[in-house]
Specification:
Helix content is 78%, strand content 0%. Helix 1 packs across helix 2 and helix 3 crosses helix 4.
Length: 83
């Protein structure tokens, strides 16, 4: 697998951002936490988008809550953003 110089630069910049000038195990852990949080936020956005799509297609709030593991209030808040 090969990476472009721009991809390596972007990855290094992201790591440096989360490392916050700390080295060793603590710095490495901060990088993992920061990158994981970024990925989790992206996945939550995708989930929310799909909840809105499913709701527009006819899925009930109850069905969406059961499928997503979220509460009905959370699902209602997500689908109401669509309005």
């Amino acid at each position: 697998m090969s990476y472009s110089e721009a991809e390596v630069f972007d990855a290094t910049a992201a790591m440096d951002k989360h490392r916050i000038g700390v080295g060793g195990e603590v710095g490495a852990a901060l990088v993992v936490v920061g990158l994981s949080a970024k990925r989790a936020a992206k996945e939550a956005q995708i989930r929310d988008d799909m909840i809105r799509v499913a709701h527009r297609a006819g899925a009930s709030v109850r069905q969406l809550a059961e499928a997503s593991g979220l509460g009905r209030k959370a699902v209602t808040a997500i689908v109401s953003e669509d309005a």
